[in-house]
Amino acid sequence: xxxxxxxxxxxxxxxxxxxxxxxxxxxxxxxxxxxxxxxxxxxxxxxxxxxxxxxxxxxxxxxxxxxxxxxxxxxxxxxxxxxxxxxxxxxxxxxxxxxxxxxxxxxxxxxxxxxxxxxxxxxxxxxxxxxxxxxxxxxxxxxxxxxxxxxxxxxxxxxxxxxxxxxxxxxxxxxxxxxxxxxxxxxxxxxxxxxxxxxxxxxxxxxxxxxxxxxxxxxxxxxxxxxxxxxxxxxxxxxxxxxxxxxxxxxxxxxxxxxxxxxxxxxxxxxxxxxxxxxxxxxxxxxxxx
Length: 290
Fold this sequence. Notes:
single chain, 290 residues, alpha/beta, Malonyl-Coenzyme A Acyl Carrier Protein, domain 2, 4-stranded antiparallel sheet, 13 helices
């Protein structure tokens, strides 16, 4: 069974998508439509901007979404049996899989980005990558800290990203090193994504999602909140709303896809991060970039 997966924030690079724009009429049409929808030329920032331009959440998220979705639309053999997306990538997966229109998906991603950026500006917060500990150990250490700090991204065995207040992350990194972590690295991110500190953004996005039409997807989408496959549009909406304040269960998505018969794994979008994560779970399954 063919799995197609879509990357999240952090995979961006200057020049992303330009080859698609230059070589595929359908890509050029969609990029120009995106410029109109967003009200600014995001293509200028993607193709010729600076790394700092692309690091802005309000640019990063729609840029990665556009690169991923438009790439999928140029693939002649895009016939997935299962799809998933890491955080932001879940929106890309839903559009590529027919659950959302291109226009609605882009509008939701931009609203999500703006809401998250606003939440980050309200209260300083951050994230950190923890390497070399079992998930349960990280969970227990986080639970023992008074400040807000929670597991945010279960990326692969031995690699978990935590999210929370500045003080919470500082204390957690110290305690996790004492617990045996090989590394506890603060990340250069705008705020505490996938934590309770994103609640204002979740409320704002929920209204937008609930007023958007979702269709039944063409194949199951394995969602971040619980790593299970869904085809019911109402349930997909509900899970998508929960996603902003819940952890990304990527390790378990990969394990469930394998258990459900995945035989190939194609990453659609910028970078190769998701291919690297699968290799930490099962090296036998062939991976490729679209």
